[in-house]
Amino acid sequence: MVDLATLRRHDLVHLSPEAWRGQVTGLVEEVADWADLGRPAIFRQRVCADPDGAVPLGLPLPPGMGRKRLALSCPPAAVARVAPPPLLRDARSSAPAAWRPVIEALLGADTSWRCFGSLAWQHLTGLPYLTDASDLDLLIPCASGADAARITAALGGIAAWAPMRLDAELVSLDGGAVQWREWLSDAPHLLVKTRSGPALVAREALFP
Fold it and tell me: Which of 45, 46, 51, 130 is least enclosed, having the fewest CB within 10 Å?
């Protein structure tokens, strides 16, 4: 049984097929076999409507399914396993050809970076999530201000010629995440996304 306190933003949550069908019955018929195909949902922020102790889950559907965003919740015992978002190096095979040079440049900076958003979902499901307007969404672990400076310098150089928008989150050791352009703003307080919602955090406290 999963411990709800250990789940982090963007974690992928796999349910047993039986538990999944119990969650989506009457919602969207097209996803009834989602878990049978090995596809996950994603851990999301809890809202007031979620039952106490339940695992809050989200599922963004691809354009061909109307771009719906399903909000589900399940008991912890229904979770079969939890996985982090895919590594960028694993998802690159699902990217369009025009993105490949950018991804190779990003991997040249660091091979540990992960992705989320449309590229991740296309890689995870084989369904066409990516469009001409899609961003490349990245999750980048960041342990210090020096790390943040190195990472944002690399991202800035690549973003200058990339054909898509780079949307990267710098993720601190405690799981809080700041958008990389927000970090570059030099504002004394930064908007940080946490598992319980957004918060303003002093710059020096984010990556001490």
Answer: 51
